[in-house]
Design brief:
3 domains, PH-domain like, about 200 residues, alpha+beta, four-stranded antiparallel beta sheet, 7 strands
Length: about 200
């Protein structure tokens, strides 16, 4: 299911709407295929009936595991918009995380050798929120997603801090102070950005 557009803010647009990489299905799919192969082999041979029942039970369990994994896949969204990062998951009980782009400090990507071959991996997002770091697994093409997040952060900063407006550091300091007073950025973020602007003067 695609991320509901009704949950977007005014003027907000979806840039990326991702589901977990297909590697997410590796475990249950492998067991299901092996169980089906075993079921066919046992059914075609002259083996005891109890063995056929046992393999049938394993096959049903593998099918249920695969169905449950598919339900999780279909209800998981990792979304990058022009304003924030959104993660939603859960078939019955829902879990959601939203991180405004202006609060994202660093984005780390991690890939094992196998994940590099499969173009899958993990992202760890360090933000100025209460939780500090959030890890997201089974992200397809994590390096490209990481680059896109940074690009949206830059575009978002240009909009907030004067894209198309004056590049004068004094004007930018005034806008930063306004954002601080409105609670959009924290005192620490304000001080860090203020130092960067003062260094350019």
């Amino acid at each position: 299911m695609a991320f509901p557009r009704k949950l977007l803010n005014d003027g907000e647009e979806v840039v990326l709407d991702l589901r977990p990489h297909w590697w997410f299905f590796a475990g249950p799919a492998s067991l299901l295929l092996a169980a089906l192969a075993g079921l066919v082999a046992v059914g075609a041979s002259d083996l005891p009936g109890w063995l056929l029942l046992a393999v049938t039970g394993v096959t049903l369990a593998a099918l249920l595991w695969f169905a449950g994994r598919y339900s999780r896949w279909a209800t998981t969204n990792f979304v990058v918009t022009t304003d924030r990062l959104i993660y939603r998951s859960g078939v019955v009980a829902k879990r959601g995380i939203e991180i405004p782009l202006e609060r994202v400090n660093t984005v780390f990507s991690n890939q094992t050798v196998l994940e590099r071959l499969l173009r899958s991996g993990d992202l760890v997002i360090e933000s100025g929120g209460e939780r500090g770091q959030q890890a997201f697994t089974d992200i397809p093409r994590p390096g490209l997603v990481q680059n896109e997040i940074y690009r949206q952060i830059e575009d978002n900063q240009n909009r907030m801090y004067g894209g198309g407006r004056s590049d004068d550091p004094i004007d930018q300091l005034d806008r930063l102070d306004d954002l601080r007073r409105r609670g959009v950025i924290s005192e620490a973020e304000f001080e860090a950005k203020k130092r960067k602007l003062l260094d350019r003067m």
